[in-house]
Automatic annotation (TrEMBL):
The keyword RNA-binding does not apply. It comes from the Eukaryota. It is found in: Cytoplasm. This is ABHEA protein. Belongs to the AB hydrolase superfamily. ABHD14 family. Residues 72-126 form the AB hydrolase-1 domain. The gene is Abhd14a. The lineage of its organism: Eukaryota, Metazoa, Chordata, Craniata, Vertebrata. Keywords: Cytoplasm. Gene3D superfamilies: alpha/beta hydrolase. One of its GO terms (cellular component) is cytoplasm.
Length: 141
C-alpha cells in the first residue's frame, strides 16, 4: 500500500478519492472483475471508500479489523449491498470492537470472531481463519 511499510509515499492517495482511484487501477491492471476484497487493518483506508463508492463491483468484502471505519456514517454503510464477512480475533480489544460497531450497519453482513486470536487473526489462527473465509466464499453467488 503506498505510504506504508517500505513503499514510497504517493500524493495521489492522500484523499479517499485518490485511494479509490488507486485500488480501481490495481483491479483493472490485474484484470479482476467482481473480486472479493479482503481488507486487514491499514488497508481499510483504501478498501472502505472503495466499498462505499464502488461496492457493486465486488462479489464480497472481508474486513479484518480495518482502520477508518469511524470515518463513515451508519447511513453510508446501510447503502452498501455487498455481501460482507466481518472477521476478527477476540483478543483484538483495540480496533476490532470499534470496527464492528461501525461495520454492523452493512445490511448484508455476517460476523465471525476467532477465539484466541489477536489483531492479525489470520496469522494467529490460520486454520480457523481459512475455514471461515472458505465458508463465506461458498455462500456467495
Amino acid at each position: 500500500i503506498p505510504g506504508y511499510g517500505d513503499s514510497p509515499s504517493a500524493e495521489t492517495v492522500v484523499t479517499a478519492q485518490g485511494r479509490v482511484a488507486f485500488l480501481d487501477h490495481v483491479l483493472q491492471k490485474l484484470g479482476m472483475q467482481r473480486p472479493i476484497l479482503i481488507s486487514p487493518s491499514m488497508s481499510g483506508r483504501f478498501a472502505l471508500p472503495f466499498l462505499l463508492v464502488q461496492g457493486d463491483r465486488l462479489s464480497g468484502f472481508v474486513p479484518i479489523a480495518p482502520v477508518g471505519t469511524k470515518d463513515y456514517t451508519a447511513e453510508q454503510y446501510r447503502r452498501v449491498q455487498t455481501p460482507t464477512l466481518i472477521l476478527y480475533g477476540d483478543r483484538d480489544t483495540g480496533l476490532a470492537p470499534q470496527a464492528l460497531q461501525n461495520l454492523q450497519h452493512l445490511p448484508e453482513h455476517q460476523v465471525v470472531v476467532l477465539p484466541g486470536a489477536g489483531h492479525a487473526c489470520y496469522l494467529d489462527k490460520p486454520e480457523d481463519f481459512h475455514r471461515a473465509l472458505l465458508g463465506f466464499l461458498r455462500r456467495l453467488k
